[in-house]
Amino acid sequence: MTEVGNSAVTTPKRRVGRPRATGPSRAGSDTRADVLAAAARLFGRRGYAATSTRAIAEAAGIRQASVYNHFRGKEEILTVLLEQTVGHALTVAARLRETAISPEAKLWALCYADVRVLLDDPHNVGALFLLPEVTGDHFAGVRAHRDQLWSAYRDLITRTGRRSGSEELTTRLVCGLVESVIQSRPPEGERDVDAVAEGVAEGVLRLLGCRTAEITAARSAAERDPA
Description:
The chain is mainly α. It has helices spanning about 30-45, 55-60, 65, 75-95, 105-120, 140-160, 165-180, 180-185, 195-205, 210-225; strands spanning about 1-5, 5-10.
């Protein structure tokens, strides 16, 4: 179950006896996960409007009817994918509120966790937020969860007492730096996820005017008391 704010995306138990077509899906694999992975690839390559549930089913190696055992349609599939991009970071932000480390250390930890999730995802699901359809009413809920994440960043920035311009501008700069890894991620074989996540977290603190010694202290505190 992936937590998103006060809600949750629950993965149902695997169903038995559904029809399976011949395709890339492995025997014994999780069909729901197969559908999500196939949809992420197709949405990224073709776009949302040009991707049908039939195409998703074929890419997942199942029959089209099997998709509807797990999802009401491609709108729900995209919603779940988008929720997954923010769910972990929101959970980390909630846990950080309970820790006694400094706001700078909390901000370092949140940036690090957020970037790691964005880079670890093999299908670059974070890029799906750039799809034009996501601005529509059907995806208002998932946009609200993303806004909650930005609010968590804004709160930590405020608690540091440091800003680069207005509070809103600073939040946009910080979140923009974190999300820049969506479009500038290196090829998988050349991707050092830890190094990039650490670099972005450090860059955020430098953006706020933290000195090297302060950044080192924030990182050390975050690593000693992980969320």
